[in-house]
Amino acid sequence: MRAESCLVLLACICLLGRASSAAAPAADACVADSARGCATSELPASSPASAHPYATMALLRKVPADSLFVSEPDPSWFGNGPNPSSNPHWTNKNWLKSRFHFSFAEYHDRARSQFGVLRVMNDDLVQPVRGFGTHPHANMEICTYIVSGDLTHQDSMGTRETLGPRGIQFMTAGTGVRHSEFNTDDTHPLRFIQMWMVPRSRNLEPNYGSMVGDRERQHNKWAHLVADVKNTSADTPVKINQDANIWVTELDEGKESTFELREGRQAYILCLEGATTLTAASAASGTSAQEKLVAHDATQAFGAATLTFAATGSEGVHVLMVEMAAAPL
């Protein structure tokens, strides 16, 4: 590496995408990623929505799956052994396949830097007996939703826990925490969605919490999985230090469900599995919009609007939504 590049790397305060286990906890929200290079700098929570191309007055803005950056890093970067030449239990040749919705690690695109307080959304597929070694985080609210498989989490607060499908966990990184994430199963891949949100205040005391998965909780209805810690009426133990919520639903084929996105609110919606037709209707403006989503597609939605999800896939649809205060235009 050239001397100039080294200086840039050392000076860069960047999001920790996949740091090596030897990295020390950073005082900021992120540190340099020695394996994959420097990602984009953290943007303040007040960054205007106009910083990305989707922040307009349109009710819906689709983010197609084929527009996402796909990362398949070398296994040695994170303490994993070589990829096997063949393994009947592996569904991908590389140990990890990540779809980045926003700038992260080696991917840097100013047009996709964040959406309101949602700074990171990574859709990770981890093969059997592989994972991320111990690495640090600070000053981020980190939520992880398990789509399939089992995720084993261990951290410097003394937590060790394995969560299965539909499980949700949060971690307030605050002043600094170290953790690892592994798929310890030797036959089944693990897929999870990891989301980072900018906290309302910095240098909080680190904290961890979770909730086990329950299909009935979200079957043909919306389940409120993550809420603001200030929302004392929310019936979930998973609460973060930000005005943001995570909702999930699983609809059977032919079923519909609605969600009222209030004025001054916005949402980032990810189709996890299956297919749906999403219709947004605004009574105030008399306008409407519609998008068809399949697995890995996303869309941004802006209130006030009634969002109607119709499951069109033969296997139904599995949807995750991050709802938050609208970023100022």
UniProtKB/TrEMBL annotation:
Residues 92-197 form the Pirin N-terminal domain. The keyword Signal applies. Pfam families: Pirin, Pirin_C_2. Residues 233-323 form the Quercetin 2,3-dioxygenase C-terminal cupin domain. The keyword Amino-acid biosynthesis does not apply. Residues 1-21 form the signal peptide. GO terms for molecular function: dioxygenase activity. InterPro entries: Pirin (IPR012093), Pirin_N_dom (IPR003829), Quercetinase_C (IPR041602), RmlC-like_jellyroll (IPR014710), RmlC_Cupin_sf (IPR011051). It comes from the Eukaryota. Gene3D superfamilies: Jelly Rolls (2.60.120.10). Keywords: Signal. Belongs to the pirin family. This is Pirin N-terminal domain-containing protein. The lineage of its organism: Eukaryota, Choanoflagellata, Craspedida, Salpingoecidae, Monosiga.
